[in-house]
Amino acid sequence: MCGDSTWRLGDAGKIAAPMALVYRWLAPQHLDTRRLAEDAAANPAGKVVIIDNAFAAERLPEIERTLARARYTPDNDGLNYDSASMSLDPTLPLSELFRDASWLRWIHAAVGMRFAAPKTNRVALRRHRPAGRGFWPHVDDLRGDPKRLALLAYFNHGWSAADGGALQLWEATPPRRGARPLCWHAYVGRRLDFLGRRREVVVELGGPGERPVNKLRLVDTITPSNNRIVILALRPGQLVHSVTPSNGRSRRAILQWIS
Amino acid sequence: MRSSSGSREEARFRAAFAHLCRADPILRSWIRSDYLDPRALRESALARRAPRWAVADHFFIEQRLEALARRHARLAFEEDDEGLNYHSTATRVDRLDEEVGLDLFRHPIWHRYAAFVLNTDLHDLGRTVVKYRRHPPYARGFWIHTDRDSGRSKSLAVLGYLNRGWRSSDGGLLQLWEGKPHRVGSGRPLRRWAAFEGTRLSFLERDRIIDIQAAAPRGLVKIEARLIAQIVPAWNRVVFLDFRSSPAYHSVTPSRRRARLGFLQWLY
């Protein structure tokens, strides 16, 4: 599979390979999306794929420079999410990648999703502070903001499980009648330490709008390891996810949402 | 290889072991440079708690794995699990004087590498079983079970796959389950071992929560099994699975028309 020049992008057909930006940025073993799409199809957590050693090693310094220059501002004031972010400067080479057609097709194909030109394509650099309180369980595909794909690329050298900041994927089912949920408002401004302890929890799913009560069962916990990409297909099923609190280290990521 | 996470001394130990792996000539001759430092894999496994597992993709140097696959294709396999609810053929290679791959599979630092990834201990250093395995086309699948056994119990398994272009629809998926005590009155049927002898385990392809008599060290034990992972047996993929921290219940879904090739190594 590695270096296979006939790589296929899902239903979108073949692309003349060497011209595409993904060939310059991605590690060559990940250019063939068929394998990734099969992983996504098999994943009981939903159409999710985890890609380790994702970017080509020679491109990592460019990403590091971009992250080092970032000036973050809090982006979830008053909510049960604790992070700061900034939009990716469209003049940077990295921005060119995230808006390139080959990249957009690669993301879709990696989770087995038919390509459609994005209506919106948001890319942000995000930082969780060393004492980050975590992210409440939520879905990204909110009413009025119909995202269909999310991509998370992590750049945290030597991240350990004990550092926290893990991405959690949950299976959601209706709760039993009378089940008492953990309430969103009770945790505003507090560390979400229950996320690191519980494998099952009844919660009000993330706001700030509607907050339906769901019973959640933990399916996977993913460390934000350096040069790891996670792609989440947010449709047809909604995908409930959260982030555990951080324990003393700043956590960096590049996020992309496609509607 | 087990240690508590977090202390400075612990970090030094991990760094020293990573250095040892990066410098080791046998590991360097088999493992791609991305994985010579096993610390990221270990942290992925530790974050998962129970069962504790990690997947490494594109793990081996291609030429080495191709050589192993060529040899694998010439081997004679024998029925491995006759009369049981597992369906595969295998040839055990760890007792042979010579075989492709044994320089790695017998290598003490490789054993330590696998234990390090899973943050577990090996109680019987040097003891290993290595099987090259082939599930025939239309294999019936593997019942939900743990590899724990009574006596000198296995610490961990390393599973490697040799299947190019494998699709999830080809079946043969490795499934990992969270096992909870069985509750009477769940409304789900209890899957009984005896009822499925010699039959395809098709329910594994459908059900995400199964009440089942899982195969355990002291016979069959009723559990409520909840599916948490399903891994495609793709070319050059390696799975590390720990049996010390939890039973790590697992199974394999039935195959369709393709033979499924791989290897299995147990460390004790």
Account of the 3D structure:
The complex is a heterodimer of chains A (259) and B (268). Chain A contains six helices and twelve strands. Chain A is of the alpha+beta class and 259 residues long. A seven-stranded antiparallel β-sheet of chain A has the order 1-10-6-12-4-3-2. In chain A, a hairpin with an 8-residue loop joins β8 and β9. The longest helix of chain A is centred in the N-terminal third of the chain and has 10 residues. Chain A starts with 20 loop residues before the first helix and ends with a strand. Chain B has 268 residues and is of the alpha+beta class. Helices cover 23% and strands 29% of the residues of chain B. In chain B, the strands form two sheets. A seven-stranded antiparallel β-sheet of chain B has the order 1-11-6-13-4-3-2. Chain B has a six-stranded mixed β-sheet with strand order 5-12-7-10-9-8, with no helix packed on it. Chains A and B meet through α2 and β9 of A and α3 and β10 of B.
